[in-house]
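Re: the 241-residue chain
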Amino acid sequence: MKIYKTAVISTFSILLIAAIWLGLPPEESYIPAYALASKVVVIDPGHGGCDPGASRGAYVEKDITLAISQHLARQLSEAGAMVVMLRTEDRDLVGDGFSGTVAARKREDLKLRAQRANEVKADLYISIHTNADPSPRWYGAQVFYDASSKPSKLTAVMIQEEITKQLGNTKRKAAPGDYYILRNTQMPAVIVEVGFISNPQEASLLADNDYQVKMAQAIFAGIAQAQVRTYDTEIELYPNW
């Protein structure tokens, strides 16, 4: 588990960073400094080690999720967030001494991911995955959230909107999902399925570094938008803070 620490940066710096990432003039890409400053964000690159996740030929989920997560970690860190990466290399979170079945190891790995997110008292948990289907026709990124959590839904919707706007290759909507990791994390949490690795065209994109950067930018922008809305709502409810 790696923690990225940053110094507090100015509103002007946030503005310029966002402009560079999104390729927009500063006045069109403004993200207030308070949006992400000092927020603890856990990024969880799906799978790893003996669990490769889904694959298509040379394209492997665990590699794609790690690459996108690393880009996202850098962007969030530069925006003032404290980023906790649950893995930074090709491994799961289970120790070498584990002697159970593959299925049991996967269950233990999921348990540890939720546990570590809770231990650091994160403000937000982002899990990065690729989707897959027996049919190669399906494509498009989609974000999932726990239906019982309004902050999770807001984050998912904002990320989904930014992916749709910036990448333009999905018509999918953010949706509730009944997943262990979403039920067992004690903070707003989403799973970002960045696309279908089972689709030949999308798999090729997902393995491309430039596309990975763009995907991370869209996820970052969605997170920031959700944080701005959350902050502004709290100020309206508690104006004397």
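Residues 209-237 form the longest helix (29 residues).
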